[in-house]
Automatic annotation (TrEMBL):
It comes from Saccharothrix longispora. This is ParB-like nuclease family protein. The lineage of its organism: Bacteria, Bacillati, Actinomycetota, Actinomycetes, Pseudonocardiales. InterPro entries: ParB/Sulfiredoxin_sf. SUPFAM superfamilies: ParB/Sulfiredoxin. It comes from the Bacteria.
């Protein structure tokens, strides 16, 4: 590395000071940009898998993992930030011992990670990951256990994103969409998933009343998507009414407006006669 003295102990001390300085500068930059408080916090593994819903796990054995994919921790340690830079001097002694060993070319055991989607979480080896980052490495050897989840981890950047994933998981339990439909229905505001779930269930109840038979949740979800959601979204696209919202947000908006009109207007024969007369 540039600026090395050739003395492992002195260089390890400089490595730590440099990593601490970068961590402080990163916090300052986030504050100046008014970014969320959690932008530099390591993602908590247990909160992530709880939000996504665990299906199972499997051991993958020894793997080579990109350091930039390691974004969280199992024990929610506060000793390192999102890029595993030390957040205090508390870890200095152990950190520098590992940095000295790395610089001397000594063997360092692989870390232990959990994999969720394309994200990795440290179970054991926080200091080793931090030192690897500081030394400019791009990959690290790790024993990896993959965790399979109901909802994909794609799109998680900060801790706040977990709220959306959690509400989406609950929505998909109520409205079990599959395949293309599952990916197409997406909302930004987590609270909207609850409203959409109630809307689909109400639509399904009216459908069962019309047909005089019971339909399970999967059948209701599939028919709602094909017979209600897709045609409405297509009309919104043609009318250029989607705007900067997601298509699902546009659909939810027009569905709410339709419900409001039903609740606030009389649609009896006299009203319809008057409307026809004004055409």
């Amino acid at each position: 590395m540039r600026g090395d003295t050739g003395f492992p102990r002195a260089d390890a001390e400089n490595d730590f000071q440099r990593a601490r300085r970068r961590q402080v500068l990163s916090r300052l930059a986030a504050w100046l940009r008014r970014e969320p408080d959690d932008v530099n916090i390591t993602l908590p593994f247990h909160e992530v898998v709880e939000a996504l819903g665990v299906v199972g796990e499997k051991r993958l054995g020894l793997c080579t993992v990109r350091l930039d994919s390691i974004v969280g921790s199992v024990d929610r340690t506060r000793d390192f930030d999102r890029r595993f830079r030390p957040t205090s001097a508390r870890v200095r002694a152990r950190w520098e011992r590992l940095a000295i060993a790395q610089r001397r070319g000594e063997a360092v055991p692989p870390v232990e990670l959990y994999r969720v989607g394309d994200l990795h979480f440290v179970q054991d080896g926080h200091h080793r990951v931090s030192v690897a980052h500081a030394l400019g490495l791009e990959v690290i050897d790790a024993y990896v256990t993959e965790v399979l989840t109901r909802v994909a981890a794609h799109g998680i950047r900060h801790r706040g994103d977990l709220i959306v994933k959690d509400y989406r998981r609950l929505f998909l339990e109520r409205v079990p969409l599959g395949g293309r439909a599952r990916a197409a229905v997406a909302l930004s505001d987590p609270w909207d998933y609850a409203e959409l779930g109630e809307h689909v269930e109400a639509w399904g109840f009216r459908l069962m009343q019309d047909e005089g038979r019971f339909l399970d949740r999967a059948s209701v979800a599939a028919r709602w998507y094909a017979e209600e959601y897709v045609p409405v979204v297509e009309m919104l696209r043609q009318a250029d009414l989607v705007g900067d919202r997601t298509e699902t947000e546009a659909y939810l908006w027009v569905a709410a407006e339709r419900y409001r009109l039903i609740r606030t207007h009389r649609w009896d024969p006299d009203v319809m006669t008057t409307l026809r007369a004004r055409r």
